[in-house]
# Entry
Amino acid sequence: MQVKTTLLFDDWTLGLYTTTIMKILDKYFSRQLVTIFVMLLLILTGLAWMVQIMSMMKFLLNYGIALSNFLGLTVLMIPFIISIIIPFVCFISVIFVYNKMISDNEITVMMASGLSPHQIARPALRLAGLLTLVHFLLNLWIVPASQSYFYTTQWNLRYGLAHMKLQESAFTQLSNGLVVYVDKVAGHDLSQVMLSDTRDKNSSIVIFAEQGKLVSTPRGLSIVMQNGSLQSNGKNMTTGTFDSFDMDLNIADKGGDTSFKVRRISTLNLIKSVLNAKNAKQQRLILSELCNRFLNPLMNLILVAVCTLILLRTSLLRRRASFAPLMAVTAMAAIMSLFMSATNMVNSFTDLFLLTMAVFGTLGLITFALYRR
# Structure
């Protein structure tokens, strides 16, 4: 009877000891993982943002946009950038922290003390689970909203009243072949307007008007002119006068605002539009975007599970440091390449269902291998 009591006490003590050790190790792992993750995320996001700024510099120079508006526009791309790099940053953080601990023999000591691979991998999996939730929030709500605002703001800065800065007593070239002269400008009200439109080589137009007003329409900018004359030179010369004349400046890029951009469509509307797609190409774009929004966040869990599985299962082998990180990186590259290729090849609901099953099956298989004794 005495022996049984002692065994129970020893089991309870061992369980309390293991729980205490795991709490300490969880904090130790989590602190390092979060620190590395935040540093890498800030660095890579900053670099990607700078690349975005450089790629849009032509937009800043061509349209004369204020620097504050330009920077505000590029900031709207940050949620999209983060949604792309989160799985890679998470993977790099995990492989850096765990490989360093393996090299320092910390993992070996933990396993020798009785901790299993899945217990040691728990902090990394917890981080991946949290990032998966954040990734879902980004993909399903924040990125579509920010992208919608980005494209709307970009279009308004290019072709709306916000970008139009006509100088008094000067010729302003709005686009190739379209020149406007204004004597005085008061907000969007103009006086003594001269407009020359030679964009059509077969027909040029010259308009003089006493007054004009810039108006923003869904098509772009228009000038409503009053009390003026018009001269058109084509096969036949035409002249005339008018009391009011509305001219669409038509300076927007062809299809610039009306082109189908799935990233800026809300998730609910995107799901509804699957069955109402205009053609097979548009349906393929919608299905591919749905795959990215709903399945890409799971890559955080899959990549971290693969990384910890390879590193921890090989941590007790000789010469482990020479090939384990390379194996993990190769596995990550193969998984992401297959996933991105598969999402671009989704053409029907059947393909979508099969890809979903493949992702969940892969996650389940890797998790089983990690938790197996």
About this structure: The two ends are 33 Å apart (CA to CA). Residues 238 and 271 are 53 Å apart (CA to CA). The beta strands are 170-175, 178-186, 189-197, 204-217, 220-233, 237-248.
